[in-house]
Amino acid sequence: MNIDTIANNIQRNLEKLSIFNATPGEGCTRLPFTKEARQAADYLKICMANAGLKVHEDQAGNVIGVLEGEDPEAPALVVGSHFDTVINGGIFDGLAGVVAGIEIARLLKESGKPLKRNFVVIAFNDEEGMRFGTGYFGSKAMLGQITIEDLHRYKDKDGISVYEAMQEYGLVPEQVLDAKQDLSKIKAFIELHIEQGPVLYQNKVDIGLVECIVGIQRYLITVHGRADHAGTTPMDMRIDAVEAATKVISKIPDWAREKGDGTVATTGFIKVLPGGVNIVAEQVQFTVDIRSRNNDNINDIVAKIKEELDKACKANGASWEMDNKLTIDPVNLNENMLTLLEQKCQDYGYSYQRIISGAGHDALAIGQVLDTVMVFVPSKDGRSHCPAEWTEYKDIAKAVTIIHDLILDLQ
């Protein structure tokens, strides 16, 4: 295998896909069920077909390519990642893994070596959850974990539901249940991804072998107060939603620090209504994203948030509600595949280390039910989810070589 050729192919496809972007010049924005997502999906279909894959799009908007083996009934080997982005993100997050999977298929096809079982590449739809506040839509649909009720329940900032967005995208929402796959027909799932953190880059390590992905819980919390005049309403007569909300928000980071275990908690969105400089706030909405390799840590922080909301709202007469957007448990990845990948790194002379993923990935959802492994490649300066996101194409190519060999071993 020629590393330069692999790297050039990956670069060409990623640069082409980067033009399907709602914010040119300001990072890459490709939200699910948008024009940009449709353009990317259609281009990926062409790439997959050119690599010798049989291509289709499922009822959740996942793009799937199949390289058929000698025994199509044997459980398949699947490589995949996602093709949506955050707002003003980079061009590598997710798509590096999809393009790498297509490149692995090309190498397998051109080698002429017969495969016993099918090799499948999946470009998952809406992993980020950026538009509807959820996440893992495509992979959870594949696992049979999406319901019609979910499609109506989750809406974007403009009030458009997933159901309506799917219709606009050209899908039939009622058929989303048909995206569920027979999991007995999948032997293993493998995901290549940029690290999105600084560890590999700072340690000058070629490959990260992910042994654990943290669990995640996400919430949208609404505190209800009462709008009043900022000048004429005495402090002891206010039902100030901001006062109650911020007393809770300010404590969340310290609760995460106390837990350790790599536990993190983030309030990434705050909205105040009516939002006037001279109006006591009637309502505050804010999000909380909590992650840890230890699920008890997450649950303890959620309990503390509820307790503190009760206390803060009782003090000034406000009220609150808490909507769970996502709950997914931590997952330990497959030890047998990790050991095989370590041997591949040694064979090629690549430096490597075991690593924990603090970011969620499709592998997190799929790893709950299938043998799964992840391979990380370095992110320059640890940057991701921003225009500065960058990974060397040769680093992705190195990961392609070891996953290619793993696929052959797992036949």
Please, could you describe this protein's structure?
The structure is a single chain. The chain has 411 residues and is an alpha+beta fold. The chain contains 13 helices and 16 strands. The strands form three sheets. Strands 1, 2, 3, 4, 5, 6, 14, 15 and 16 form a nine-stranded mixed sheet that branches. Strands 7, 9, 10, 12 and 13 form a five-stranded antiparallel sheet that branches. Helix 1 crosses helix 3 (95-111). The longest helix has 22 residues, at 295-316. The mean pLDDT is 97.
Q: Summarize this, please?
A:
This protein is α+β, with helices and mostly antiparallel strands and 411 residues long. It has helices at residues 3-17, 35-50, 95-111, 137-142, 148-153, 162-169, 199-203, 241-249, 252-259, 295-316, 335-348, 362-366, 393-409; strands spanning 54-57, 63-67, 76-82, 119-124, 186-194, 207-213, 215-224, 228-229, 264-266, 270-273, 279-280, 283-292, 319-328, 331-332, 352-357, 372-377.
How is this fold's topology laid out?
Layout: H1 3-17, H2 35-50, E1 54-57, E2 63-67, E3 76-82, H3 95-111, E4 119-124, H4 137-142, H5 148-153, H6 162-169, E5 186-194, H7 199-203, E6 207-213, E7 215-224, E8 228-229, H8 241-249, H9 252-259, E9 264-266, E10 270-273, E11 279-280, E12 283-292, H10 295-316, E13 319-328, E14 331-332, H11 335-348, E15 352-357, H12 362-366, E16 372-377, H13 393-409
Parallel strand pairs: 3-4, 3-5, 5-16, 6-15
Antiparallel strand pairs: 1-2, 2-4, 6-14, 6-16, 7-12, 7-13, 8-11, 9-12, 10-12
Helix pairs in contact: 1-3, 1-13, 2-3, 3-13, 8-10, 9-10, 11-13
